[in-house]
Amino acid sequence: MTHRAVTETANVPLATVSYFFDSINDLTIEAIRAFTARRVDELQKLVEQAADTSVAGANVNKAVADNRVSDRAQLLAMVEAYLYAAREPTMRDLVGEMLAAFEALAASTLRIAGAPAPDPIARSFVALVDGYSLHSMSSDRQQVPTDNLNDALGALFLGYLLQQGHVDQAVQLAANRPQ
Description:
mainly alpha, Tetracycline Repressor, domain 2, 9 helices, 77% helix
């Protein structure tokens, strides 16, 4: 990323970015923070809408699957943030904050879906959604079917319930899944 590329994309004079940000690194940090806050807010609204229905667990699952990052530019920005943190140790705390926000959202979503103590497994759900999003970005079709992700999220959730000893809840959830 360069100042010139940013100003051209934003259609503002070249000096504008330098006026507000001392460096490209400062601009990148603010862009990651803004992206994370906006994305978490979007997903939280979807989760709350899905939770207002009578079959919250299935609808929350589907809301997340249907609305993972499908905008190629947004997904690329997220992947770039991960890669940037891998190459630049000073960015790891910021990307860690981004992941923590997504994990908190996942834990909230899992709680709505009926998960007891979801915090330890939330990271796995975030990683699963990230993986499917990355596959979508790198496939010719540009989109791995959301039904595949929804099934994977459901399977991970059922496995989590069984592992935690909530067999009755897992059986009930599995019995109510659409075929």
